[in-house]
Amino acid sequence: MSRFLVDRDGETRVRLSEGMELTKTQSVLAVVGLVVLFAVPDITRLTGLSFQAIHRGILFGLAAVGLNLLLRHTELVSFGHAAFFGVGAYGAAVLASHFEVSSGLLLLLGGVLAATTIAVLIGYFVSGYLDIYFALLTLAFNQVLYAFVLQSGYFNYSDGLSVRPDGLNPPTLFGLQWTSTGYDLILYYFTVVVLVGSLLVMWKLVNSPFGRALDAIGQDRTRARFVGIPVEKYVWIAFVISGIYGGLAGGLFALLQLHVSPDPTLYAFVSGEILFMAILGGFGTLVGPVVGGVVLVYLLIQAPFYVEYYNAVTGLVLIGVVLFLPEGILGSVPKIGTGLARRRRDPGLLRDDIAAIGSSIRRGVTRAVTTVRIIVFGVN
């Protein structure tokens, strides 16, 4: 079967497998993205960017890819995704600390299995709920897990657990004990391979009949049920898959940090950050959550101003994204490019845009002044 197709618009597509086709532009971008990912260690060394921050951002982005399955296709918002990220991290840490398992791959597998188990249990209870009830239930389960770990001596309370099996050296990777620098580098390349594989699996999944059924459920549950789709079962499966991605990211996070504690992994605020990453990068895209993860984590670690005023700046950025880039960074790029091309051909469109922006600003200022008058003076 030919790997190259030409659609009705004359655009060449590359077929990877049945149901998985890329346009020529998408193929080029995918190759460029792969090259950049594998070149990150060299890029950071030459530019002074933080290799550790980018690595952590990719891991949180991987968790956001799992959350994006619920957000984009079933239109369910989970405020408890940190539960799977944290359980994945703690699953690896428990094996290293209490059972002295030295293989990094076995630690990762243990974390994923632990997160999968929790996702199956929580998903059983929440899959039949909608909207705010689903969101609040996921948040509640998240906080129950957080409180349990925080107050448990087995998990060493708020101090957490080490992921160094012998108390000194990091776990082995591929049967070898690496130096500190070599360990970080090998783990990064392994993370990239896992990320690419996870994205391909997710892409195949959302373009399968199961993915289309999830879209139908997100659009109208009653109609989906009427045409024979087992709604609760499919939402449950999607929830478990989402949890597996979170657990995979959490297990890799444990291998990277070599220490796991409740606040950076299980706290509900982490769930909000993962959700924000998906929105920031573009929850209507496959790779957008990864971009959002790298951007947000890098700012958090590297920008002193951002760290000092984290909550305020994050809130302002979220407001800006919702108002001006509702489809996120990657989701807005094609529209921005098309819009700029149209405005180069017709300068009148640019003048209309400027006038519309000015009008919106005036309306916003008027509403703000009116609100302040009502709050302060009690008059309109």
UniProtKB/TrEMBL annotation:
The keyword Hydrolase does not apply. It is found in: Cell membrane. Its main location: membrane. The keyword Transmembrane applies. GO terms for molecular function: branched-chain amino acid transmembrane transporter activity. One of its GO terms (cellular component) is plasma membrane. Signal peptide: none annotated. InterPro entries: ABC_transp_permease, LivM-like. Pfam families: BPD_transp_2 (PF02653). The chain crosses the membrane at residues 21-41, 53-71, 78-99, 105-126, 133-155, 186-206, 234-254, 274-301, 308-325. It is a multi-pass membrane protein. Keywords: Cell membrane, Membrane, Transmembrane, Transmembrane helix. This is Branched-chain amino acid ABC transporter permease. It comes from Natrinema saccharevitans.
